[in-house]
Amino acid sequence: MKLFKTYLKLEYKKALQSFPTILLGTFALFCVTVLLLFSWQTQKKEHATSPAVIGVATEKDEPYMDFFMGLLKNMDNLKNNYTFTLIEKEQVSTLLKKKEINIAFLIPKNYISSLIDGTDEPIVLRFSGSDPSITTLMMRQLSEAVSSIMLETEAGIYTMNDYYAIHRLPNQSKDERNLNIKYINRLLTRHSIFSIETLEAEQGLSYTEYYFTVGLLLLLLSWGLLSPSCFRPEKKLLQLKLAQSGLSIPLQFLAKQLACCGNLCLLFLMLSLILSLVAPLLPITILQQTTFVEWMGAFLPVLLAIPLITAFFHVIYELIPDLVAGVLFLFISILLMGYLSGYFYPFSMLPNSIQNISHLLPTRILFQYTSGCLTKSFSLVALGKLLLTTFILELIALCTRMYRLEVTR
Amino acid sequence: MKHYFTWLQILGKRLLRKPLFLFTLFLIPATVLLLRGSIHPKDSAIHVLLYSDEAAGKQTQDTIHDLLAQSNTIVTFSRCNGKEELYKQILSGKADCGYLFPENLDQALQDHATQKKAVISVVYAKNSLTSPLIQELVYSKVYPKLCYYILENHVKKRVPSSNEKELNKLYQEHQTGKSFFSFEYTDGSKNELLNQEDTNYMLLPMRGIAAIFLFLAALTGMLYWYEDKEHQLLCWLAKSKRNVIRFFYAFQPTFLAGIVGLLSLLLSGISSNLGNEVLCMFLFILAATSFSLLLSLLLPKIKLFLAVIPLLVGGSMILCPVFLNLTTSNPICSLLSKLLPVTYYLESIHSNSGKWHLCLYTVILLLCYTILANCVTVQPGTFIKCQNIQHD
User: Fold this and answer.
1) Could you report the predicted ipTM of this complex, rounded to two decimals?
2) Of the candidates B155, B174, B193, which is a domain's last residue?
């Protein structure tokens, strides 16, 4: 027991050596995050709408373009995401390259006529850069909806003109203008067709809560990249010698685990303290908590997630003790597991098969537990899953270590 | 020259003889294969439920059929058998929103054309971001009928004796059906990915993920340099040679990650033509290597270097257009992203000016490295230590 205590002390001292690196890395990440949040907050105050600009390029006398622009500019739902502007076709490439516009809609010459003739000239959507996000695909859906509305409106007006011409009715141009106004009015108030009911979803985290939890977890998981030496196993020879002198491999493993876990817990407590002090002073609402005590109350149960994070690091570095390969493997594990656990896109957007698999991933289990703690919906099931996963990961790490040493012997 | 080639060989062997390193490299193509098979035809990013009574009229059924037919990998519409089931699925997060259609949509739309009464009930979770988009899609499906009723009312007011059948026939003649879209990149080349109806949206960020992985490989490659420097394995080399060999340390893992990244892109189906991909990847390998070299020169201690890795990798994930493009909504994001090589790589794929920017970025980094490497003085004591080692 005495030997174990001495070894534990030594391991803890070793773990503490990585403390400054982790602290420095965390501080740097923290500063950048605050800078970005601050700039967003300032920008929100300056501009009511987002500056993502969509340029609509068309021929000068293209019919219905004013109507089309009016429709786009008045899409209330899009106001926070896009602004629309009319541009000339010759400017498209330059403006896209200069990033003055983000997407260009290129309307072909005599677009409406081409559709009536059946030549079906397509509208071209040109993107600046290779925007890979899912919002690009949503833009496609939206374009189709807007275009369909525009074509139907134009069909209505053409029908009226034809009907008036066939029956030689008077006041055609005046009535056409009135019908146009009716359509525009109807489109501007189009949401009156829906009666809306909103529900408090069971799994409904607000987007701020969701991404705050994700940010916190990614920060905690990045600690494994900051201090690989802290989690990597000792040299095999040293481990065998220690085993010969009475400190068994499982005890060595336990000491390392306790030391690393203790170190990370200490760091997390420091981080929680800083966040709890800073968060109530911020002008934005991140979580429901408003006071220092409430924030600390939310963070403290998250301490139970630290053993799982440590176990995760241990498994990776036990499996791949090499420095470069280990860091790479840890990073790619975090990135891919995080992606499959809904860290970067909302979880509900993932395919069903991925959703089913992700419940087994440590990153998803961590998310479920942590989000529960932070949003005052602590769940014993999530805690149970967390503890079970920690145990399984520790067991894998220990077995890997013992297997490696057995092979060496 | 032979000397450098030997170093290149030694460093290459050091990496290639580690099966776990190779296993790590192949995790990205393996994930691509997993994701390729993960999308079921019924899967999509947004799930919308549609409900109507069994006794609903033809117009209601037709509109629902239209919407069901519009399902793709982004939005899936599915019919729900009961109102309770609809609420249950939205509450549990299985569906994003639900639309309850009236029994007689035709009559409801006719009434709406004159009275502006609500016709369709929408149910969605409080935090839903996607429901406004769906609302526009559903509206576009009911709009043709509504548009006709507005026209009919308008004409009837002017000409009470108007012929409805004739008007309807004329209207149908003017309906052009679906409009067509074509998607292009900045340089005007076709965006085949978006032009497909069944795009696997899970594979969209794969290029960015592969790029960040390559960037990390360049950074971690330098960790061997720090380790070897600590063990004084390099001090017998002349300073000029040491600077070239330092390049190999970062280049080797980056090159391997580049090959695997290229393979992943080809497997994912999001790649452009091979020549363009190889060129951009090669330029990016050089850029990432140069970045890593310069950083290792600026940060002499391994602990400092390790401290900035998560910052750079995390920064690349958030600031570069990998998962979301934040540069458009925040000028500071845009500015900070310009410091990272991943941004230039992602921009270079479909733009010639992007390729030139990537080249310029690499040249600037290499120039800075060369100038700084020649300016940095040897730490006092190192030379004596090295001499002693050589004597021993």
Assistant:
1) 0.79
2) B174
